[in-house]
C-alpha cells in the first residue's frame, strides 16, 4: 500500500521495534522497500510491518523452564533447525481442526470501515480423503464497491502456511539480517529470496522472524512471486504482501493465527483502501477414529 494514502494512516498501527539498532531497522526498511517496489523515505518509516492487535500478543507458553540462550550458531545451522521445525508443523497441523475467519474490508475517507465481507470455514476432507475448506457460516457482506462469493477466495488456500520447509531451502537464498524483539520474544531475522522463479509455482519473497532460543519461526512478512510477478491471492484485488503472526498451540507447535494485507483498489476512477484479515482460532486435535469392535466369533455347535 502506498505510504501516501491518507485513508489508512489512522487505521494502521505503527510497528513496535524493541531493542533494535537503527542500522538494523534501516536494513529491514530497505528490504521492505524492495518488496513494495518503491523507495521508502524517512517519513515512510512507520509503513513497515504492522504490529498485531492486542489480542495477538506473541507469547510463549509452557510449564517447563526456559532453556539457556543457545550458543552462537552458524547461520546455516539456525536455518537448518527452523526449516526442520517447519516440516514438523506442516504435518502436525493436518491433525488439527480450527475455525478460519476471512474478513475483507473497505475503508471510507474518514479511515473507518465502510463495509465488509466475512466468510468462516473449517478444514474438512471429501470422500476420497482430499482436504478442502468447508463453509460453516453463510457468507455475509456489506461491501459497497465489491461483490464477492466464497469461491472467489479459493486462492487463499494455495498459499503455503510454512514456506521455508527443508525440501524448499535449496530454492532460496536465505540471508541473516540481525536480531529484533517481537513483543516478548528475541528473534533472529532472515531474508528469503527465490533463486529463480517459475510460471506454475509461486515462491516466497520476504522476511522471517525466528525465536532466538527455540529456533522456530514466529512471524513472516512477504509476498509470493512467479515469473509473471507478484501473485494476488484474490483475483482483481490488490492483496499480495502479507504479515503473518503465529500462535503456540498445545505448547508444541507454532501455527499461523493472524494474517493481514492492505492495499488500494482502483475502481472507476476511485481509490478505495481495502484490507484482508485472516484469523485461525479454536485449534483442537482431530479426534482419532474409533476402531471397529471385533464381533465375537460365532459359537460352534456341539456335535451330536
What does this structure look like?
It is globular and about 55 Å long. Strands 1, 2, 3, 4, 5, 6, 7, 8, 9, 10 and 11 form an 11-stranded antiparallel sheet that branches. It has helices at residues 22-36, 75-92; strands spanning 96-107, 113-125, 131-141, 172-182, 185-194, 203-211, 217-226, 229-230, 242-249, 253-267, 270-285. Mean pLDDT is 79; it is low at 1-23, 38-50 and 67-71. The protein is 11% helix and 38% strand. The longest helix has 18 residues, at 75-92. With 304 residues, it is mainly beta. The protein contains 2 helices and 11 strands. Strand 9 (242-249) and strand 10 form a beta hairpin.
**Average of pLDDT:** 79
- Number of DSSP helices? 2
Q: Give the strand tally.
A: 11
The profile of the biggest β sheet is: 11 strands, antiparallel
Compute the separation of the termini in Å.
Answer: 90 Å
State the order of secondary-structure elements, H for helix, E for strand: HHEEEEEEEEEEE
Q: What's the shape? A: globular
Q: Could you name the ranges where pLDDT drops below 50 across 5 or more consecutive residues?
A: 1-23, 38-50, 67-71
Radius of gyration: 22 Å
Summing up helix and strand content along with how strands pair, one would put the structural category as: mainly beta
Report the helical percentage.
10-25%
Strand content: 35-45%
Amino acid at each position: 500500500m502506498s505510504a501516501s494514502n491518507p485513508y489508512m494512516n489512522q487505521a494502521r498501527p505503527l510497528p513496535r521495534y524493541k531493542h533494535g539498532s537503527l542500522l538494523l531497522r534501516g536494513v529491514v526498511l530497505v528490504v521492505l522497500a524492495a518488496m513494495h517496489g518503491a523507495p521508502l523515505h524517512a517519513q515512510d518509516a512507520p509503513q513497515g510491518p504492522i504490529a498485531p492487535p492486542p489480542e495477538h500478543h506473541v507469547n510463549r507458553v509452557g510449564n517447563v523452564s526456559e532453556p539457556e540462550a543457545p550458543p552462537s550458531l552458524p547461520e546455516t545451522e539456525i536455518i537448518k533447525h527452523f526449516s526442520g521445525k517447519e516440516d514438523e508443523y506442516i504435518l502436525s497441523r493436518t491433525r488439527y481442526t480450527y475455525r478460519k475467519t476471512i474478513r475483507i474490508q473497505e475503508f471510507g475517507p474518514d479511515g473507518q470501515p465502510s463495509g465488509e465481507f466475512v466468510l468462516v470455514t473449517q478444514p474438512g476432507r471429501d470422500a476420497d480423503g482430499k482436504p478442502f475448506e468447508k463453509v460453516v457460516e453463510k457468507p455475509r457482506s456489506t461491501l459497497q464497491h465489491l461483490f464477492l462469493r466464497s469461491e472467489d477466495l479459493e486462492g487463499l488456500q494455495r498459499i503455503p502456511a510454512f514456506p521455508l520447509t527443508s525440501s524448499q531451502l535449496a530454492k532460496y537464498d536465505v540471508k541473516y539480517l540481525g536480531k529484533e524483539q517481537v513483543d516478548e520474544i528475541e528473534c533472529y531475522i532472515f531474508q528469503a529470496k527465490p533463486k529463480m522463479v517459475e510460471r506454475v509455482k509461486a515462491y516466497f519473497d520476504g522476511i522471517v522472524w525466528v525465536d532466538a532460543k527455540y529456533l522456530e519461526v514466529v512471524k513472516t512478512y512477504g509476498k509470493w512471486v512467479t515469473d509473471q510477478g507478484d501473485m494476488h491471492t484474490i483475483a482483481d484485488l490488490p492483496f499480495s504482501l502479507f504479515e503473518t503472526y503465529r500462535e503456540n498451540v498445545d505448547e508444541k507447535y507454532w501455527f499461523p493465527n493472524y494474517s493481514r494485507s492492505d492495499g488500494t483498489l482502483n475502481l472507476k476512477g476511485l481509490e478505495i483502501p481495502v484490507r484482508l484479515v485472516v484469523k485461525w482460532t479454536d485449534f483442537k486435535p482431530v479426534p482419532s477414529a474409533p476402531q471397529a469392535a471385533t464381533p465375537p466369533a460365532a459359537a460352534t455347535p456341539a456335535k451330536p
